[in-house]
Amino acid sequence: MSRLKTSSPLTTLHPSVMGPIGSGKTNFINKLTKTKEEEVHQLRPYTHDIREFTFNLSKDRQYVFADIPAFGDPSRSDRDTLRTIVDWIYKKYRANLKLSGIIYTHRITDDWVSAPTRKSFNMFVRLCGRRNAGRVRLVTTIWDNMENKEIAENRASQLEANHWKPLIEAGARHKRFDVNSSRCAWEIIEDLTEWGKAHLIQEELEERGRGSPESVKQLKAEQRRSKDELQQTWGDKFSRRIALFGKNTQADLAVNVAENDYVIL
């Protein structure tokens, strides 16, 4: 008597792609989903909302890529962008859908890290938290526009040694999207999702959002630990940046925690 074959259950992974404006994140997603550029532009009002693209890699493996709005958009505040992201994360969390990792794009053509780029990255670090760094890939893009590869290699080394150093030390990896192809993009995604693990960012935001005595105590301890240094750096501005814990909603508290400069994750 022949045994009936059972099909494997569908595994759905949820990687997200973030990065500054113009850093190549939409092109990266295009290469993954084989979406034409003109089709993507038809979807835009500008990317104020999270856009999701579903791609079936095989009959038992599905990817849902999220294109996350960039910080530094001149048409809206960074706080509005942050609130959009946090609300989306909570929605996924409540639906028991957990992120599989985060791609953060940075164009290698930049000869220096500008203030908006630095601020965007700092917001990203505060949002995801350093304990989740192992599920982050810092992806340099637009390598094909660099004629001098030695300069590009030097910039990549500088990013690793300076701008990205804290996150890399916490477990993040630098990957190069150095060939503008579907194959190169998928190699990065496969490295990110090789174990199919869920991202912990939702649990971390959930802990902050509850405003539990333990989480509030931890945050206040972090405040005290860095207060002297920050007071010296920010002066009077420091006193205006204290987050309020008591009356905030769950998502509001997470936004406040991620937004304020004195929080060390």
From TrEMBL:
Record InterPro entries: GTP-bd, P-loop_NTPase
Pfam families according to UniProt: MMR_HSR1 (PF01926)
Stored Gene3D superfamilies: P-loop containing nucleotide triphosphate hydrolases
Any one Gene Ontology molecular-function term assigned to this protein's record: GTP binding
Superkingdom, taxonomy of origin: Eukaryota
Region called Disordered, residue ranges: 206-230
Domain G: 17-72
CDD domains, per the entry: Ras_like_GTPase
Protein name, as recorded: G domain-containing protein
